[in-house]
Design brief:
The chain is built from 13 helices and 12 strands. Helix 3 packs across helix 7. The two termini are 16 Å apart. It is found in: Cell envelope.
Length: 343
């Protein structure tokens, strides 16, 4: 039960879709024979928007060289076939990242497009400047945010701040499509995912309902003893994905939520300690940011051993790449669900 079936072929398929979008959309930024790609951008430039930090930003022409300072947003830029040439990165050679620090779910696509890893961790203004971008994309929050140096970045090129913390990944994809002139590609990626979700919904025998989706933390924050969980609500991207394939989300009983350091959020319910046994009411549990080892450890934890899902032997890992969803990782989750429950 505690298994993640191989998804490498499906990851390749997701990358292939992005490549297909590239071929069908625009043959090259400098080509006079670029077909539909030019049509998508016709008539909207210069484009003036108000970004998620309240800045009014004018983009004079369709971008041809985009620097993403957020490794989280880079995947969505690739999914819409935007001309991203360089990106900030996370720690390389980790369970979720390749040797450049790019997330595994889209690292093949980044290599195909020769996306350069500018830095790992803290943003490097000089590295961004050296790329001579005509558009810079920044995340408002998160560990990959370069919002603190917005003024320096905006002196280099038009700089747009995107808040991925209050949007699902489809909304982020749509927004990035708008600011890059790749609205058609963004719509196509979102539509492809929606069609795939419907396909999976029809192809599976659903597990016992309702279900709880969560991230399980074996150790307390700071390295102490104990365990905690962030349970996805219907407002979260992960919760919406589970509902798209026909699953019913279990309710979290009142009085079980903790007072987490992340404050009140609409997308998660933070639960700690003994409250886990009361809060995890799903007949099945879907563990995000988890592999087979995580699921096995969860099932053995004394705080949840009496919960319905553990008793049902119904604990399912959704992959280490599922912590933060984009087109690629969300598609991988669908593939894992189909692999597990396919008729």
């Amino acid at each position: 039960m505690y298994r993640v079936k191989p998804g490498s072929t499906r990851v390749f398929a997701a990358v292939t879709l992005a490549t297909a979008l590239s071929l069908s959309a625009c043959g090259g930024s400098g080509s006079s024979d670029s077909g539909d790609g030019d049509t998508a951008a016709d008539g909207q430039w210069p484009l003036t928007i108000t970004d998620d930090a309240g800045h009014e930003v004018t983009i004079d022409e369709a971008p041809e060289s985009i620097v993403s300072t957020s490794v989280t947003l880079t995947g969505s830029l690739l999914a819409v076939d935007a001309p991203v040439t360089a990106s900030g990165a996370t720690m390389p050679n980790s369970p979720v990242a390749d040797d450049q620090g790019f997330f595994t779910q889209w690292s093949d696509g980044a290599k195909e497009k020769d996306v350069k890893a500018l830095y790992q961790g803290d943003p490097d203004v000089e590295a961004v400047l050296a790329e001579e971008p005509d558009l810079i994309v920044v995340s408002k929050t998160g560990q990959d945010s370069a919002n603190a140096i917005y003024d320096q970045l905006s002196d280099i090129a038009p700089t747009v701040v995107i808040d991925y913390g209050n949007k699902d990944w489809q909304e982020v994809t749509t927004k990035l499509g708008e600011i890059t002139g790749h609205e058609d590609e963004a719509k196509k990626a979102n539509d492809e995912f929606g069609s795939r979700a419907e396909e999976v919904k029809s192809a599976i025998d659903a597990p016992k309902q309702p279900v709880t989706g969560m991230i399980f933390n074996e150790k307390a924050k700071g390295g102490g003893s104990g365990a905690s969980a962030n349970i996805w609500t219907p407002e979260s991207a992960q919760g919406k994905l589970l509902q798209e394939v026909g699953f019913e989300l279990a309710e979290v009983p009142e009085g079980t939520a903790g007072q987490g350091e992340m404050g009140k959020r609409a997308d998660i319910v933070e639960v700690t300690g003994e409250n886990l046994s009361k809060a995890v009411t799903g007949e099945s549990v879907f563990l995000f940011n988890a592999n087979e080892k995580t699921a096995a450890s969860y099932a053995k934890n004394s705080l949840v051993e009496s919960t319905p899902a553990v008793k049902n032997d119904a604990v399912y890992p959704m992959g280490l790449d599922s912590f933060r969803l984009d087109y690629y990782s969300a598609t991988n989750v669908l593939d894992r669900i189909e692999d597990e429950f396919g008729k």
